[in-house]
Design goal:
Layout: E1 6-10, E2 13-17, E3 19-20, H1 25-34, H2 36-40, E4 42-50, H3 52-55, E5 58-65, E6 70-79, H4 83-96, H5 98-109, H6 111-115, E7 123-130, H7 133-140, E8 145-154, E9 158-167, H8 172-183, H9 192-206, E10 213-216, E11 221-225, E12 227-232, E13 240-244, E14 258-260, E15 272-276, H10 279-284, H11 286-295
Length: about 300
């Protein structure tokens, strides 16, 4: 995986665990489908889903991500120039068959999940042994949300995933306009300072690294790097609430700043709530933001 080396350490020395490709494409598919929510943040819906006699194809995997976006997952054992075009074909089919997909979600996950399907940002995830620089360039030219993920198997039971490219499918100009209208939409007329804090939070989360994409829902805005790593709610009168994918048990919780919300209902995803009232709070939260980004 792009120069990554893994070693098994013992008292007598270190032995390199050589990376390898799966024996077949089906092996990769089986591994990911069995643990899809843990690996990709996507709830598994169906395998080898038929697109009907007219299209004559089968979608490798269908799923629904943490924000309710439909997901098509396509797999290739090694390097295959056709995986992106094949995936885009199935993604277009899916968008044209919304009712069928929502019916599938209703059957597998229930009516509530079906009602929350977000068609503004359907996603394609391509998982393969490798990609070329032409593949990376190609996804950046599309107006679709696409993730290219390289895999390797280490030893008998270790699976490595590396995001090679991730695009949200929006042009920079559109993205800037939407960002501004979103982050300044503050409830109940708060101060200008809180509006500026909301914008600073947005810029901070987007600037954590390459491949950060945003998904806007009615009650929160998700920042994702393949999986969600932060969800920011619309500002309240005196504070901003951000939910992170950080284990609260590994954090020294500070009343009025951080809170364990494991098992508690809230908008977005994540078990650690961070409360921001000032720019100083934003600075205090930097380490937590980076930890959540790294975990994603």
């Amino acid at each position: 995986m792009s120069g990554l080396k893994l070693f098994h350490m013992t008292a007598s020395g270190a032995t390199e665990v050589a990376p390898r490709l799966a024996e077949t494409e089906a092996d990769v598919q089986g591994l990911v489908e069995t643990h899809m929510e843990t690996l990709l943040g996507v709830r598994f819906l169906a395998s080898e889903y038929s697109t009907g006699p007219f299209h004559g194809g089968r979608i490798d995997s269908l799923g629904l991500d943490e924000n309710g976006s439909p997901v098509v997952v396509e797999y290739k054992r090694g390097l295959d120039a056709g995986v992106i075009n094949q995936g885009l074909f199935y993604l277009s089919w899916l968008v044209d068959h919304r009712a069928e997909f929502e019916h599938l979600v209703r059957d597998r996950l229930g009516a509530t999940a079906a009602a929350r399907v977000l068609w503004s940002s359907p996603r394609l995830i391509c998982i393969a042994g490798d990609f070329t620089r032409y593949d990376v360039h190609a996804v950046r030219e599309h107006r679709r949300s696409i993730d290219l993920v390289r895999y390797r198997i280490f030893g008998r039971d270790l699976l490595g995933l590396e995001t090679v490219a991730s695009v949200s499918g929006r042009s920079p100009a559109v993205r800037r306009v939407r960002r501004r209208s979103t982050v300044l939409a503050v409830k109940d007329g708060p101060s200008t300072a809180l509006g500026e804090l909301a914008q600073a939070l947005d810029e901070t989360l987007l600037g954590l690294g390459d491949g950060v994409n945003c998904v806007q829902r009615k009650t929160y805005r998700a920042y994702q790097r393949l999986r969600n790593f932060a969800c920011a709610c619309p500002p309240q009168k005196t504070k901003l609430l951000v939910y992170l994918k950080v284990d609260p048990k590994e954090v020294d919780l500070v009343p009025g700043f951080t809170r364990d919300v494991t098992g508690l209902g809230h908008h977005g995803t994540g078990d650690l709530e961070v409360q921001l009232r000032t720019l100083q709070d934003l600075d205090r939260a930097q380490e937590l933001f980076h930890a959540s980004y790294a975990a994603a």
